[in-house]
């Protein structure tokens, strides 16, 4: 059998950035005099596209430029957060896949330049055969980018949101979801794909069987 290509989501899957995102989001909610979210509230409600999620919290944007400006401001706060770290088991999982000679890469809604910076910062860039991010800070769908990758043979997408499940299903890829990130395990299980609670529980032998 042809070994699969491993496609990683980044934010929430390889990178534990939930606290950093929540802190930035709550700062905007306070500025708009809207109720802030707890971590559990956030994981129950977060969704793609991110603009729709923000609007569901009561934020309104008069023009697309308002949303673009907010996205840039959000990421400036996010970048300086002290709460950015790799998920437990992430480095080991990437290293194990590389040691087996399997192709792996990243498909992310994060802006391309920032994605590459963070992968380099956390020492993962050299292990990736491809890095596909967004052209902007909008946090929109990844489906078009997934199609553009035009990956041949079996593919396994490892992510942390229902949108990752949607992308995998649309491409005919296998999918594994990790509930350590931006959405709760209850929501992820509804997608119908296997769910693990941490990358430390990633069983590579079982995935490749």
Number of β-strand runs: 8
Rounded to an integer in angstroms, the radius of gyration calculated over CA atoms is 17 Å
Indicate the structural class: alpha/beta
Query: Overall 3D geometry?
Result: globular
Largest sheet, in brief, is: 6 strands, parallel
Approximate strand percentage: 15-25%
Written description of the protein model:
It is built from 10 helices and 8 strands. By secondary structure, it is α/β, with parallel strands linked by helices. The strands form 2 sheets. The chain has a 6-stranded parallel sheet, sandwiched between helices. Strand 4, helix 6 and strand 5 form a beta-alpha-beta unit. Helix 1 (18-31) packs across helix 4 (64-79). The radius of gyration is 17 Å and the shape is globular. The model has no long low-confidence stretch (mean pLDDT 92).
Keywords:
single chain; 209 residues; alpha/beta; 10 helices; globular
Question: What's a quick, concise take on this entry?
Answer:
This protein is α/β, with parallel strands linked by helices and 209 residues long. It has ten helices and eight strands.
List the topology elements.
Elements (H helix, E strand, L loop, with lengths): L4 E4 L6 E2 L1 H14 L7 H7 L4 H7 L7 H16 L5 E2 L3 H10 L4 E8 H10 L8 E5 L8 H7 L5 E5 L2 H10 L2 E5 L6 H5 L5 E2 L7 H5 L1
Parallel strand pairs: 1-4, 1-6, 4-5, 6-7, 7-8
Antiparallel strand pairs: 2-3
